[in-house]
Amino acid sequence: MSARVFDPATLAVIQNATRQIVDEMDLALEKAAFNPVMSEARDRANGIYDPQTGDIVAQGDTGLPIFVGVMQYAVKSAIEAYPDLEEGDVVILNDPYCGGTHLMDVKLVRPFHYKGKRFAFLANCGHWTDIGGNVPGGFGVKATEIIQEGIRIPPALICRKGVLQEDLLKILLANMRLPEERRGDLQAQFAALNVGEARLGALLDKYGDTEVAAYTAELRTL
Fold it and tell me: What is the mean predicted confidence (pLDDT) over 186-198?
């Protein structure tokens, strides 16, 4: 069987469309975040990832560069912990040993379904200005072990089928100095995922999920 020939114009359109989706997610997170490290310093990023492997499909132009290399490993950790994620589920994590960076960088991972089938993962990361620990802000230069730096979150379901798990959130916020600000940052990250879901759904409505999947797979080989 001969290899498929991809239309260069359509390839460019879909490549730029996926990047635009992530740029809009970045902007939504920037505008909605409660703390200035995300909203002004842009210490945040969003992305679209492969539905099976968690490999990167697209990240935006304004996300913090360090996240480009590490966020896919956070997605992979979420998949490993919860291989059967359903629509509306969201995994939260900040564990440096599960695809994280430092503890203040909190990541959310949500499966994106289209017509009942998982098509991709949407994920983002935002720097929370306090995550608990010995000192405000989390930069404890005298820390000798990770538990002194703040609360460590392995991959855990913060939403189940669209329902926020308030008991888990209560535990997390009880370990942070500005809980209402942290709740606001979390809601901003949810909002960015919602933007990605709406925009990616519109793209699939226009070009079809089979075509977009084929073209994004081709882009990863270039």
Answer: 98
